[in-house]
Amino acid sequence: MNRVVSIAGLALGLGVLLTACERPRPDTVQRGYRGTAMVEVYNPRLLAAQGPLNAVPEAQPAASTDGPKASAVYQNVKVLGDLSVGQFARLMVDMTAWVSPTEGCTYCHAAANFADDSKYTKVVARRMVQMTQHINGDWKTHVAETGVTCYTCHRGNPVPSNVWFNTAGPDAATGMLGNKAGQNAPAQQVAYASLPNDPFMPFLNGAEPIRVIGTSALPDGNRASTKQTEWTYGLMMHMSQSLGVNCTYCHNTRSFAEWDGSTPQRGTAWYGIRMARDLNNEYLGSLAGTFPAERLGPLGDVAKVNCATCHQGAFKPLYGASMLKEHPELSGLKTSLAAPGLAESHDGIIYFGVGSAALPPDAEKALATLVDGLKADPAAKVAISGFHSASGDLAANQELAKQRAFAVRDALKAAGIAPERVMLDKPPVAEANLSGEDPKARRVEVAAVK
Ligand code: HEC
Ligand code: HEC
Ligand code: HEC
Ligand code: HEC
Q: Which atom number of ligand 3 is nearest to the Cα of residue 245?
């Protein structure tokens, strides 16, 4: 009897233990048409752990824009000179909270003299302010109006928690075994898959082609090898993991190549790849001489960004919350796409014909409105950027995009607008659609600038 009771007790106890141990059931959300298996799987346990990481720190009250400018009061202000002293001080306090909360102001500043540039961290931070403005102003194709601040990457750490360095390349295991290309050396960045474990150097620093699927039915023409394909898959694993999503967040797996069947998120990701490349080459790469040796990688390069640097496991960094709204000083040079005069009637875009840089007749009205707007507000300035469609030869198209921008600039000049009020602004990616011809892609954007 006693034994039965104790066994029953044990079973009951185990039952209690087991229920307590049971993991919450994953949720699924259907995102594509029925039958396409475009479903996201969410694990409540992982989501709960991710919540605090994506909480947005409270913003300080806005500072007054009145009073003397920072450039007039301080000695060595090269980027943020146009801010009022109040705005400047507020940003310094926030930058400290975002980047070096433990170390404080002296992480960047020599305590005896805040104007001194002797700490490398201050020199890097100045470039980081420019990089952040560049992301917000010139990469709206990826970050939209949400934008980023230092916090998006740093989250209270001087060195962001997800960065990468160059590796010694196709790894050293040569000889009889041949070149492993980083395979079978499981690494976190490709979700421990048996894939080349460094997809970053070729795609997020270099500009190797990512597309590997043939575009014609016959096997001629497609020169992509199995090895190249595995590299592409390595990058795709990184992208999925960084955003916490499946392949079907972007692709309809019936055809990975086809853009028509892909989700809009794949287009955003396409720009994200180009943006990461641009940041790594133009900003982080150029800082190699500024960082001390202990911050550099084994090959002497600076830590660089990938998708995880900003996203940190979320489909949008901070689940899409915008901290930029509270920090307009970190938005780019361009204040709006709609230029003066165009604001009411027009979205600041002039369209062109196929292969043509000649102003079409229907652009005249938009230009006349723009000229009137500029004449009415003599302080206003505009930035002009030319774009092209994806169809045809890239080099010829880039020239075409430039000539389109020149055409608009020349028309403004001919209408009597002083040349110093019209700046040319080469966009980081002039290709404005993802494949083929698109009338909306053949355009010039006119934006008002600060
Ligand atoms: C993450 C780096 C960083 C941190 C932390 C930081 N600053 Fe700065 N600070 C800068 C940079 C960069 C500049 C120069 C800005 C420019 O050139 O436009 C600057 C400039 C200044 C200046 C102007 C000095 C002069 O005369 O030229 C003052 C004052 C200042 N900071 C105060 C502070 C205070 C107070 C704190 C702490 C609450 C702080 N900063 C924290 C990076 C930082
Ligand atoms: C897109 C991501 C990103 C954004 C946005 C960003 N940073 Fe950085 N930051 C990096 C990376 C990557 C490094 C290189 C890591 C290292 O220091 O080795 C870095 C390094 C730094 C360092 C040097 C730290 C050290 O100890 O070596 C400072 C200081 C810094 N950032 C300040 C800022 C400030 C201030 C802002 C906002 C104005 C900012 N960053 C915005 C990615 C970013
Ligand atoms: C966040 C969006 C996103 C996710 C998630 C994603 N991809 Fe991609 N994928 C892209 C983009 C964008 C391209 C095209 C890149 C380019 O052309 O520069 C691409 C290209 C590809 C290609 C090459 C297509 C061609 O034309 O040759 C393959 C294959 C592919 N992805 C497979 C996958 C697999 C497998 C997964 C899941 C492990 C995945 N992708 C997850 C966005 C995504
Ligand atoms: C500088 C920070 C930064 C980096 C680096 C970055 N992203 Fe993003 N990404 C953002 C922000 C901010 C948004 C939110 C934009 C919005 O609100 O629409 C976003 C949005 C997206 C979206 C749209 C999600 C949705 O549900 O609409 C995709 C897809 C995406 N990113 C993919 C990528 C991929 C892939 C990479 C790496 C190749 C990457 N991102 C690198 C900042 C970044």
A: 5
